[in-house]
């Protein structure tokens, strides 16, 4: 099933909103259908030599990987490889289970400049997309992310849509280590059970 069929194809709306909010910033929208076209488009952007501090990824995913194109499913370390040329500091994932510990660990390990990841630890759904878009605009505009605002937006997202969007930082990832990761993996199973009962 395509993102458009699920009302999750929000790339055009996001690009328009970001351009309006930040008219001086360069904003690229990369639509993907096949791996060959993705390679071509990413190559064109990379040729400019510009680094992209913020990258928003919209797609189908799970704890194992992301479907960047209709013909290929990529495990999370390979996803990191696709974006390594751009040296992002922040990645925002509008995708199912992308905010879990294992996907975030793969992205932090594969992208040395990456400082924070926003993503949902549970399945994403169309009702929360506009809340997430507002959060994206805040994250892109903030010089430094305010944890109180983030917590407030997390609470609002949950109350309005029963959706979750977590912020994961490199500092927390490196401080926690493998043992904490195993604990989070177990906790995520429990979270799945709770969230499925709420929807």
Describe what is shown at a glance.
The chain is α/β, with parallel strands linked by helices. The chain has helices at 11-21, 35-47, 76-83, 101-110, 129-141, 147-161, 170-198; strands at residues 54-58, 60-61, 65-69, 72-75, 90-94, 116-119, 166-169. 50% of the residues lie in helices and 15% in strands.
What's the shape?
A: globular
Roughly what percent helix? 40-55%
Classify the beta-strand content into a percent band: 5-15%
User: How are helices and strands ordered from N to C?
Assistant: HHEEEEHEHEHHEH
Overall radius of gyration? 16 Å
Number of helices: 7
Topology, number of strands = 7
Index terms:
199 residues; alpha/beta; 4-stranded mixed beta sheet; 3-stranded antiparallel beta sheet; 7 helices
Structural description of this entry:
The chain has 199 residues and is an alpha/beta fold. Helices cover 50% and strands 15% of the residues. It has seven helices and seven strands, in the order ααββββαβαβααβα. The strands form two sheets. A four-stranded mixed β-sheet has the order 1-5-6-7. Strands 2-3-4 form a three-stranded antiparallel β-sheet. A hairpin with a 3-residue loop joins strand 2 and strand 3 (65-69). It starts with 10 loop residues before the first helix and ends with a helix.
